[in-house]
Amino acid sequence: MMFKVTTPPRIFGAISLLVIAAVVVGTGLIEAPFFRQSIIDREAAIVRDMVNALAAQHGISAEDMEHHAEPKAARKLDETFGLLRKLPGTERIKIFNRDNVIIWSDDYSRLVGTRRTTHLERLTRAMHGEVQAVFNTVGKDLRLDEQGPPMPQSIESYVPILTHEADSPATVIGVLALYRDPQDLNRTIRQGMYLLWMFTGGTGLILFFALYKVFDLVYSRQQTAESKFSKLTVEHERIVQIEKMSAMGELVGEIAHQLNNPLVGVINLTQLAERQVSDPQRVSELLAEVRKAGTECRAIVQRILRINQASRSTIQQTDIGELVQDTIAFCQHSVALKHSVDYPKPGRKHVLDVDPVLIRQALFNLIHNAVLAAPDKQVRVSLAEAQRDSAQGVLLSVTDAGPGFSRETAGKLFKPFFTTRANGTGLGLSVAQHIAMKHGGVVLAENLVAGGARFSIWLPKMMKP
Ligand SMILES: Nc1ncnc2c1ncn2[C@@H]1O[C@H](COP(=O)(O)OP(=O)(O)OP(=O)(O)O)[C@@H](O)[C@H]1O
Ligand SMILES: [Mg+2]
């Protein structure tokens, strides 16, 4: 079966595996040269100890190096350093004197007397007592000697040969260069690398499976949470819809109730009139009653139409201070006011994006209520800047000196058709609240300690889109 990389955990898995593979290969490539250098350095140090042990055993001295051509010295050098041929992988042995001239080699005939070396700098360092090890890689086209075949790879060790005369510090009398076939070394490095790769790969895989498991778990939990959330959202929408429907049902019931009373009156009155057609005076009185009931019905219908009007708004930049003044002037004409409305001019202009017709209507309803609450006392209107839930806005307050509202009334103030007034329809405050909310604001009601009530419209400076 094909492994399809589709879900986020699988994408994560595929990427992680690629990263782990890159880390394993990268670690191998970076570690290999360090690994190899440390091995050849260690081998070079062993060669140095071995060479100097042999030199000490055979009593190799500076004179032997100087008179290397003499048979006795040549034999001594042969016997001493010829033993190194037995070291596995040895390709060539050269002994340099302090002038960097080859004085002895296992290939005596060709090299003695020449200065042949590929790494003069290493040779010089070895002459100063340091042990040097070089790994010659493929492509350098090294040759053991002029006629010899090219060597694809080799290890060169340069080790100082020291004198061991009593009472004097050890001095370098020459350098031994040993060329070895790197096959053994390569095998060791390969094994080391395999071990390293297995370790990093294994650790990486363990880490990968652990992370994959965690990621998969987190992802599936998130998926579950998301699906639960979307189910909740659907459920919430359903509840809101039910709420709306029941609110509408309530509203329709209220409207029916409101219209029913005058309509029942109309029916009763007309029945009465039918029975008393012979008495024109009485009929005329009854018809006047019928007209009154009809007018009442029309008033209710007009109020309801006003709510509908509030749903259609045209927002424009409006100077709220001016709007308040216009509304007060309108109240003065339409409502019989005993006192003028007190409206201290605000300190600064407040220009807001609102529907002026609607805000005027809302404010009118509040002023009208205030006037009806205390017809003999002055109504005060004020406009000021006010913050609400850390949003900037303005507060339009209408304060009266009336009796205020009871605790029981407080909970129903904004309910459509709630009224305590004989001629009221109970729509003034609910319309005002509806208008304020349409602007992202709210109508607030409070009883004042000193007596009276204050109804305020708070409007935000920036309407939420
Ligand atoms: N300033 C006020 N002081 C005391 N009570 C108030 C005040 N304003 C409103 N109320 C109470 O809130 C009720 C509802 O007011 P609302 O304006 O919605 O309807 P209404 O004034 O009764 O009728 P209308 O539809 O004619 O406005 C009022 O009947 C009254 O009991
Ligand atoms: Mg009212």
Write a short abstract of this structure.
With 465 residues, this protein is α+β, with helices and mostly antiparallel strands. Among the domains are: 8-181, Beta-Lactamase (2-Layer Sandwich); 312-460, Histidine kinase-like ATPase, C-terminal domain (Heat Shock Protein 90). It has eleven helices and 13 strands.
Radius of gyration: 54 Å
Return the string of H and E elements. Answer: HHHEEHHEEEEEHHEHEHEEHHEE
Q: Give a short account of the largest sheet.
A: 5 strands, antiparallel
CATH class of the domain at 8-181: Alpha Beta
Give the cofactors and ligands: adenosine-5'-triphosphate, magnesium ion
The CATH architecture of the domain at 8-181: 2-Layer Sandwich
- For the secondary structure, the number of strands is 13
Report the β-strand fraction as a percent range. Answer: 15-25%
Look at the helices and sheets and give the structural class: alpha+beta
Report on this model:
This protein has helices at residues 8-58, 62-66, 71-81, 108-111, 120-127, 183-275, 280-310, 320-334, 356-373, 407-410, 428-438; strands at residues 90-96, 102-105, 132-136, 142-143, 150-151, 154-162, 172-180, 316-319, 351-354, 380-388, 391-399, 442-447, 453-460. It is α+β, with helices and mostly antiparallel strands and 465 residues long. Among the domains are: 8-181, PAS domain (Beta-Lactamase, 2-Layer Sandwich), CATH 3.30.450; 312-460, 2-Layer Sandwich (Heat Shock Protein 90). It has a 5-stranded antiparallel β-sheet, with helices on both faces. It has a 4-stranded antiparallel β-sheet with strand order 10-11-13-12. Strands 4-5 form a two-stranded antiparallel ribbon. A hairpin with a 5-residue loop joins strand 12 (442-447) and strand 13 (453-460). The chain binds adenosine-5'-triphosphate and magnesium ion.
